TrEMBL record:
InterPro entries (alphabetical): Dimethylallyltransferase, IPP_transferase_euk, IPT, P-loop_NTPase
MF-aspect GO terms: ATP binding; tRNA dimethylallyltransferase activity
Gene3D superfamilies: 1.10.20.140, Classic Zinc Finger, P-loop containing nucleotide triphosphate hydrolases
Taxonomic lineage of the native organism: Eukaryota, Fungi, Fungi incertae sedis, Mucoromycota, Mucoromycotina
Catalytic activity: adenosine(37) in tRNA + dimethylallyl diphosphate = N(6)-dimethylallyladenosine(37) in tRNA + diphosphate
Protein name per its UniProtKB record: tRNA dimethylallyltransferase
Gene Ontology CC: mitochondrion
Length: 464
């Protein structure tokens, strides 16, 4: 039996059923859940952070949930420390148990990937992430600077990362700047050293792990996400938002420094729902809107929250496909195994998700041969087949290019700048770019025609 500690992880998009499967795995294997959702660490606010109701947890222990104060922020380095301690505790408790499995579940895929492999985050002592307190005390001037000034600073100390980020992406620009000032090294240099380490030594997994990726086609998932938003509103979302806003007004909850410039981009304030209903609650607090106008604003905000939820789910799948899974497939060992479970049809959940996951987890704990991940379903075969070895994230960052389209112009009449090869390729295929190119070709032909007619007239005049 491997000396490495064993864990299971459950990943997937928002609203797909990750918490449900985690509880089902724990029931079958006497396991315990470790939360890996950056918002569910906060006390209370169960609806806006989508915590699983207590009655649905069926007595299963849940760790790293419901413990952080509203105004605090939780960093990946804190999660790694806390989660590793919980994993160790669960394994110690399992000595007297026949089976016991830590099940890490959550929508913050960055947390989970950082837990599975060493050196996939800036986490070494000399390169560790700064805590919010350290950042605020060491670099308070950052919160007072406008984004263009921050971008200019980053361009000087780390032009590679500045080239990668959009000049208006304040959050990413700030993070790269903070990494430089905290570590004394450009973030791009740290990323390069990580890549060189991977190429020489391979990835170093922390645990022997199963990754259960619950997947549904977006066309089937999106209506479920919309219904989930409606349910959140029906079960008390507005009460939570109203209470939180009141606490801010009364001074019981302090907003993070730089909130106005980084509005809704840090800590709890990132939660989908709070910012989307800002206009509605502002109108309520003003008290001068008629009911019909309020209802219109409410509907618009609800649609905004549904759209944001769908975008978030899409971004979660993108992370899994482009970062987490290629990392697992390109590793030089087989200590982290990925299984894709088809949750497109909720009526077949027991057959396609629960039973398959439990069966695989039991084999995993007993060190018995595991099934081929691509053999579970047609969906699994299709999704995993798309994940052929690709450029790793580090190489993508270090070879990132900006492209300038001299044809298309901004509102200011300047050449349009595209960030990255993917955005450039999408732009070239875009309707606006193709339409404008067609317009230019027609204009060139028109000018050529007029020029030829003018030349003919001049020749005719000369003859006469």
């Amino acid at each position: 039996m491997s000396a490495m500690r064993k864990i299971a992880t459950v990943v997937g998009s928002s609203g797909i059923g990750k918490s449900k499967l985690a509880v089902e795995l724990c029931k079958a294997l006497s396991g315990q859940v470790i939360n890996a959702d950056a918002l569910q660490v906060y006390k209370g606010l169960d609806i806006i952070t989508n915590k699983m109701p207590l009655n649905e947890r069926e007595g299963i222990k849940h760790h790293l949930m419901d413990f952080l104060e509203t105004e605090e922020e939780y960093q990946v380095t804190s999660f790694l420390k806390d989660a590793s301690q919980k994993v160790a505790t669960i394994h110690i408790e399992s000595i007297s148990e026949e089976k016991q499995l830590p099940v890490v579940v959550g929508g913050t895929n960055y947390y989970i990937q950082s837990l599975l492999w060493n050196n996939t985050t800036i986490g070494k002592q000399e390169n560790r992430e700064a805590s919010p307190d350290e950042i605020d005390s060491n670099f308070p001037e950052f919160d007072q600077l406008e984004t263009p000034e921050l971008y200019q600073r980053l361009s000087k100390v780390d032009p590679v990362m500045a080239n990668k980020w959009h000049p208006s992406d304040r959050r990413k620009i700030l993070r790269s700047l903070r990494v430089f000032y905290q570590t004394g090294k450009p973030q791009s240099e740290i990323i390069k050293s990580q890549r060189d380490h991977y190429e020489t030594h391979g990835l170093d997994p922390r645990y022997k792990a199963l990754v259960f990726w619950i997947y549904s086609d977006p066309q089937k998932l999106n209506p479920r996400l919309d219904a989930r938003v409606d349910q959140m509103i029906e079960t008390g979302l507005f009460d939570e938002i109203k209470d939180l806003r009141n606490q801010v007004v009364q001074g019981h909850v302090k907003l993070p420094k730089g909130f106005e410039l980084e509005k809704y981009q840090r800590g709890l304030w990132q939660a989908i729902g709070y910012k989307e209903f800002d206009a509605y609650f502002f109108a309520l607090e003003e008290g001068n809107k008629d009911p019909a106008e309020l209802e219109k604003i409410k509907v618009e905000c609800t649609d905004r929250m549904k759209a944001a939820t769908r975008r978030y789910a899409k971004s979660q799948i993108k992370w899994i496909k482009n970062k987490l899974l290629p990392t697992a497939l390109n590793a030089k060992n087989n200590d982290v195994i990925v299984y894709c479970l088809d949750a497109g049809d909720l009526e077949t959940w027991d057959t396609n998700v629960r039973e398959k996951a439990v069966e695989i987890a039991k084999l995993f704990l007993m060190d018995l041969p595991l099934p081929d991940p691509a053999s579970l379903s047609e969906t699994a075969s299709q999704m995993l087949a798309q994940l052929n070895p690709v450029l790793d994230t580090q190489t993508k960052i270090l070879t990132w290019n900006k492209h300038t389209c001299e044809t298309c112009k901004t509102d200011k009449g300047e050449p349009l700048v595209l960030n990255g090869d993917q955005e450039w390729e999408q732009h070239k295929k875009g309707r606006h770019h193709r339409k404008y190119l067609k317009h230019l070709r027609v204009e060139e032909k028109r000018k050529a025609y007029l020029e030829s007619k003018k030349k003919e007239q001049e020749e005719q005049t000369t003859i006469e």
